[in-house]
Model the fold of this input.
Amino acid sequence: MHQPIRVAIVEDNDVFRRALELLLELQPGIEVVASVGDGNDAVPACREHAPDVMLMDYRLPGLDGIQATAAVREACPEVAVVCLTASLNPREFDALRAAGAVACLSKDQELEEIIGAIRAAPSRLAAPTD
Done:
């Protein structure tokens, strides 16, 4: 049997973060190992819990999603970052990708799309970029 994909969530909205935790925990093959509400907590959570995927909000207190993504990718290069945002404009998308995110999704996308991005993230990290 395959090991579950270990996910850490970085999201400042408590209600949305708890909902994500519950929804992700119901998915076979996904284990939520950490959940924090501040961009400054992303790297410590990464180091302590060794997730495979970090689900990162764009607008965060402390470090924003771009800064936190870059910091996680530097401190924990084996962790794939998938960003979620309420409204993603092309400049934000480009900045998140440049910081090392393997996928950027809108929070209002279907849960199946978010789950699919999480499942694909580890292999996208290992694949060469275009």
Notes: The chain has one domain: 5-126. The chain has a mean pLDDT of 91. Residues 5-126 form a domain with the Rossmann fold fold (CATH 3.40.50.2300).
